[in-house]
Write a structure and sequence with these properties.
five-stranded antiparallel beta sheet, mainly beta, about 60% strand, four-stranded antiparallel beta sheet, about 0% helix
């Protein structure tokens, strides 16, 4: 295990939406996503997807800096939802889509444990 690694994804908007993909492949278990909103309206929604098209996390409408710790519910071997939660494993580029926004900047600091 290499510890925690942070990937920064930044989107500067001049209109209502923007999509940005990470420069590096994000490898590890997703620990946290810190969103820093600069000048965008409270209607701003941020969605993260991986290279395979899976939605990793969607931050609800807002514009207050916040840290999220996404943990999906686990499933058993036949697909039944359990009560426990787990970290999301990543080994792909991460795309951040900013929608329902306006001029401003959204910076995501994505932390993974390797």
């Amino acid at each position: 295990m290499d510890g925690v690694r942070e990937y920064v994804i930044s989107a500067t908007l001049t209109g209502t939406s923007a999509t940005v993909t990470s420069i590096d492949v994000v490898i590890g278990e997703l620990h946290a996503i810190f969103l820093d909103y600069v000048g965008v309206p409270a209607t701003t929604v941020v969605t993260f997807t991986d290279s395979y098209g899976r939605t990793i996390f969607t931050a609800p409408a807002g514009n207050t800096d916040v840290t999220y710790y996404p943990r999906p519910v686990e499933h058993d071997l036949v697909g039944a939802a359990q009560t426990s939660r787990t970290k999301i494993g990543l080994a792909s580029y991460l795309t951040m889509a900013v929608t329902l926004s306006g001029a401003g900047t959204v910076v995501a600091r994505v932390q993974v444990v390797r």
